[in-house]
């Protein structure tokens, strides 16, 4: 058996006594990311049960989205996986090992712009590499490589105020990828962008991910975005959030925007929307009758 990350580091073919090569053993791929019965209650005068027990496993290089009504606990779950908040109970494992706070195995991109306004794009990315054993010059080079990966060559010296919202999020993606995490956690990263920019960012993310695979857990309330980007989509229940449905997105890759017009795409979108709608109606009992009336 090989260790964590087995699929990529599978041992080479071994020769049998007869001298013929046998293919490498099929490695039992341990999940890259495993969430085990994670629950979260925010304590206080009126305790809020945000997560009611969530379990899921993501394989290496899988793209998984989480959708659900507002307030169902998506951001809470992502922050727990990022190690930014502690669960009330349950465990998060990366390559079989429980996490203990944030780590460089997990890159994070949030909806709100989190760049330092006084640093240039290059400096913002390089700042994330400050812990690495490399010269300032090498850090700048790695930053430049990642800025060009997201189409920002030529903007390395710009400061955030000179960049559009989409460009700022591209810098945030470059920064999260710069230290080569095996997992990327994204919480509505395109939520603050206008519809057109959002589409361009979805295309960019798909392209980057299809050429530089890594495991992604992506939170969104945009169902089309989830279907377009993902290998699997989980629908959450209302608060306390639990997983309600799992939808496998078996659409071909590389994915193109035109795919969004196909009957297969529309059917997946319909299924997920229906599942979320059921939850929305549970929050607003009687609404369905009113709508019919
Ligand atoms: N720090 C906190 N303290 C108290 N309640 C919180 C806190 N963070 C989130 N909540 C509550 O937990 C629930 C889930 O929130 P959140 O994870 O942000 O939902 P989502 O991202 O799905 O919209 C909400 O009811 C929210 O008000
Ligand atoms: Mg949220």
Describe this structure in words.
Strand 1 and strand 2 form a beta hairpin. It contains eight helices and twelve strands. A six-stranded mixed sheet has the order 8-9-10-5-11-12, with helices on both faces. Strands 4-3-6-7 form a four-stranded antiparallel sheet, with helices on one face. The chain is of the alpha/beta class and 293 residues long. It has two domains: 28-94 and 101-105 and 182-293, P-loop containing nucleotide triphosphate hydrolases (Rossmann fold, 3-Layer(aba) Sandwich); 116-180. The longest helix is centred in the last third of the chain and has 21 residues, at 263-283. The protein has helices spanning 74-82, 121-128, 136-149, 165-178, 195-211, 223-229, 263-283, 287-292; strands at 14-15, 21-22, 33-42, 48-58, 63-67, 89-94, 97-98, 106-109, 183-187, 215-219, 232-236, 243-248. Mean pLDDT is 89; it is low at 1-26. 33% of the residues lie in helices and 22% in strands. Bound molecules: adenosine-5'-diphosphate and magnesium ion (MG). Residues 74-75 line the site of magnesium ion.
